[in-house]
Amino acid sequence: MSARAASLRGTIVDPTLAPVPGVRVLLKVAGAGLSTHTGPAGAFRFDHLTPGDYELQCDVPGFEPVRRRIRIGTRDPAAVTVRLTLATLKERLNIDESGPPVAPQPGKNADAVSVGRSMLDSLPFLDLNYLEAMARFLDPGMPGGMGTSLVVDGMEMRNAGVTASAIQEIRINNNPYTAEYPRWSRRRIEIITKSSADSYHGTLNFVFRDHRLNARDAFARERPLEQRRIVEGSLFGPLLRSRKTSFLLSGAREEDDLVAVVFAQGLNGAIRQNVPRPQVNSVASLRISRQFSAGQAMFWQYNFQDRWQNNNGVGGSALAETGVQSRFREDEFIVNHRVLLSQRLLSQFRILLGRYWAPNKSNYAAPHIVVSGAFSGGGAQADRLQTEVHTSITWLLTQSMGHHTLKYGFNVPDWSRRGLADRTNQAGSLSFASLADFAANRPFAAVIQRGDPRVIFFEKNLGAFFQDEWQLRPNISIAAGLRYDWQGYFGDNTNFAPRLAIAYAPRRSQKTVLRAGGGFFFDRSGPGPIWDVLRYNGSQLHRYVLTAGEIPADINRARLDLLPTSVHRLSSGVELPDTMQFSAGVERQLAARTTLAVNYTGVRGVQNLRSRDANAPLPPVFGPRPDARFSAIRVIESAGRLEANSLEITLRGQFRSSHTVMAQYAFGKAQSDTGGVNWFPAASYAPSGEWGRTDTDRRHQFNLLGAAALHRWANFGFSVSVLSGIPFNITTGADGNRDGMALDRPAGVGRNTGQGPGLAVVDLRWYREFLFRPEKKEKSSRAVAAVDTFNLFNRLNYQNFVGALSSPFFGRAVAAHPARRLQLSVRLQF
Predict the structure, then answer these.
(1) DSSP assignments along 263-288, one per residue
(2) 712: pLDDT confidence band, cut at 50, 70 and 90?
(3) How far apart are alpha carbons 654 and 97 in whole angstroms?
């Protein structure tokens, strides 16, 4: 009688118990072997196994190789859970994540930007600020209420929590149509942090910049006397030599003596100043992880940040006297629980509790003065205090059912008690159309506030989703999902967002993959509009907006209680912004670790938020306001539109074992009739005339990241950005329609018709690695000395173009992107 054939099932998870899909698994016996790949839930299976002793093998970059002996009898053995552990110290480029083979799976899109630890250590990053540098790959042309979403280890957060050396990987445009997150992939940065390990690993970074190493700013009379000092590091490993408990400790201290360059025009001529802008930032985090069993783990994490800055807001046409001193202190506590409820069901639960305190204090208490396109001076009138106690909750279930991987759960992105004490404009702000009007003390608008500055409210956001990833055949997969989002204060309860993605490999080799997808995405408004509506309700905080002919000689001595106040309101039926994105493309594996992707993406937005003065003086006379009980009546409405199209080409690859490159070119166009919730049209009764280029629309964008280890003394990392210019708005600089805002445009001139110049920046990093124990190359501790050069060719890249016709700077820039800067650093690692 022949022996009964058995089956072996198993799951591969990372150190935090997250499933690892797409891993090649080998099962060897007597020199022969079988192979398969893990599915989306990290599961694998071998069938028709005869009794004997087998060896299970898998190799995942960045983790220790797995070699496990398994005895197969006449019955199916127990399911196997393989928990990967981080590899010993390796810094070679050939283990980087760049250039993976294409695969017909929705989450394996080749146009995703993924930068792993070794590339992060090889590329030039100013002040170790990975997120700011990687933001170049985000979608810049889309207005939105909440900007970019930051997802850390699967949870939406305000900041990374850990410092730079504790980050393992950064992803952008990963899995574009997943229903798990509210925002589309080009508005989302995903961070994977370092996880537990069986041995101790540490990194210590020293970063130094000084003005003597920099070129002079083009708008400064002399080189700004700047200096920056950074100490950053992380340490992780077993806690007290425990095999089941580990820790991750990270921290950073930044001390910056920065300088703001002022380039303005006053009554007595040009004003050019170098204004000190010091800041100090301290960040720390501690994570304790516990592995209770092969299928259950938890971690507890505390994050801390304390940042102080002075002379915020100074620079360009803003004079030194407008400086603001600010402070930000935040504490967060996170609990994360992962458990394999069965071999097919993984539960992940996370909760975050946090609080912050953020006061702003103007350095001078004088009234604020704005002269269109010339200068802003006086006090900043920006005194305020923001406080918050917030909670975020995520519960995700991942279930494997044959060829289907189901993901479903709910999240509470933000459930917060927010407080605001708004003491801005207590001494008032005065706006002038030109220097001549300023000399004649002839303002066109004045704003002053009186009343109770305190407001408290609870911000509530909820979300839930369901997604089915179906491997229909080995060469075709479909991901279909549905997401629901809800936000308080908006009477919109029908925010259902369906999403669909298809990946198909037409040939058996699977070296070519066709992709298509589409979905709806709902944005959030953020707390700003809600604060405005609650405090400017006509009875709590009075905001007086006065126009020419109504402004007393001394606004602070006027009987303001006799004047009509401004109110802010949500329009009836206001809804959250709704964006539809759709795309199609082709991906081709050119070599073993080189891929090319060509994709078209279209975006259509409706219900975009904008503001409008519903009590503006009526044309063509522009006399008194229609409702004499109020001055301005700001109405926040969801009536804006957005249309964008782009063609994108992405090349990712490793051409030699030591040459890694990622290049991306995009040709696109983005148009809208709103710049966001705080944006007002030039004419409040004719907002349809605002259709034009978005504020950050660029026709061409090219970004390149690369690293090359040519010799032990010739290791380089580089980044290149070549971008066409963004538009700017052309206005008269005056308030012809007497609504208190200098937004009027000349006759026949549309929104954003001015065109700024392009931008080109080349950054270069040189580094040299020194091994403390050369005979043990991979396991040796090491020191790395590096020199980074930013804007290598010292190209002058203008920004902040003035569009006010009344300005002496009309059509000219009043600032520039930084000139060439050098950065010295040393990294110690074990």
Answers:
(1) EEEETTEEEEEEEEEEEEEEEEEEEE
(2) confident
(3) 10
Give yes or no: residues 443 and 534 share one domain: yes
Please name the helix (run of DSSP H) or strand (run of DSSP E) that holds residue 494, with its range, or none: none
Quote the domain boundaries for residue 158. 113-195+203-829
Tokens of 15: 């150190």
The angle formed by the CA atoms of residues 281, 284 and 285, to the nearest 5 degrees, is 150
- 193-214 average pLDDT score: 90
Q: How confident is the model at residue 101 (pLDDT cuts 50, 70, 90)?
A: low
Tokens of 685: 């009764």
- The CA distance from 176 to 425, in Å, is 43
pLDDT of residue 145: 54
Percent helix, strand, coil in the chain, to 5, is: 10, 55, 35
CB contact at 8 A, 123 and 136: no
3-state secondary structure of 75: coil
Is the pLDDT score of 238 beyond 50? yes
Q: Are residues 22 and 155 in the same domain?
A: no
14 CB burial (10 A radius; 0-12, 13-18, 19+): buried
For residues 11 and 134, state if they share a domain: no
Q: Look up the CATH number of the domain holding residue 536.
A: 2.40.170.20
Do both 298 and 435 map to the same domain? yes
List residues bridging with 32 in a β-sheet. Answer: 29
Same domain, 343 and 435: yes
Q: Are 470 and 477 in contact (CB under 8 A)?
A: yes
Q: What is the pLDDT of residue 95?
A: 32
User: Do 77 and 134 fall within a single domain?
Assistant: no
User: For residue 327, what are the β-bridge partners?
Assistant: 308
The pTM for the full model equals 0.86
* pLDDT (0 to 100) of residue 87: 59
Tokens of 298: 């938890």
Give domain status of residue 520, yes or no: yes
Whether 62 has a pLDDT exceeding 70, the answer reads no
Find the DSSP H helices in 81-184: 117-122, 130-134
C-alpha triplet 650, 147, 407: angle, nearest 5°: 70
Q: Which tokens in the block code for residue 343?
A: 């071999």
Please give the tally of structural domains in the chain. Answer: 2
**Amino acid at the residue 191:** I
> Which of 83, 102, 128 delimits the end of a domain?
83
Token pair in block for residue 738? 């007497």
In the chain, what percentage of residues exceed pLDDT 90?
68
Which of residues 55 and 83 earns the better pLDDT score? 55
Q: Are 799 and 817 in contact (CB under 8 A)?
A: yes
What is residue 64's predicted lDDT score, i.e. its pLDDT? 76
Distance (Å, rounded) from C-alpha 774 to C-alpha 780? 7
Q: What is the dihedral of CA 605, 611, 617, 619, to 10 degrees?
A: -10
Whether pLDDT at 320 is above 60: yes
- Of the candidates 211, 250, 203, the one whose C-alpha atom is nearest the C-alpha of residue 229 is 211
| pLDDT at position 90 | 38
Give mean pLDDT, residues 250-258. Answer: 96
> Alpha-carbon distance 500 to 69, whole Å?
41
d(CA 287, CA 304): 12
Q: What is the pLDDT of residue 141?
A: 55
Other CB atoms within 10 A of residue 501 CB: 25
Surface-to-core class of residue 645, CB atoms within 10 Å of its CB (0-12 exposed, 13-18 middle, 19+ buried): middle
Cα–Cα dist 685/626, whole Å: 13
| Cα gap 565→712, rounded to integer Å | 70
Based on the fold, state whether residues 208 and 62 are members of the same structural domain: no
The residue out of 83, 100, 121 marking a domain boundary is: 83
What does the pLDDT look like over 635-663, one tens digit per residue? Answer: 999 999 999 999 999 999 887 767 889 99
794 and 750 belong to one structural domain: yes
pLDDT score for 767: 95
User: Is there a domain that residue 107 lies in?
Assistant: no
Measured between alpha carbons, how far apart are the two ends of the chain, in Å?
A: 57
Strands, E assignment, 426-555: 429-432, 445-451, 454-473, 476-487, 496-504, 512-522, 541-547
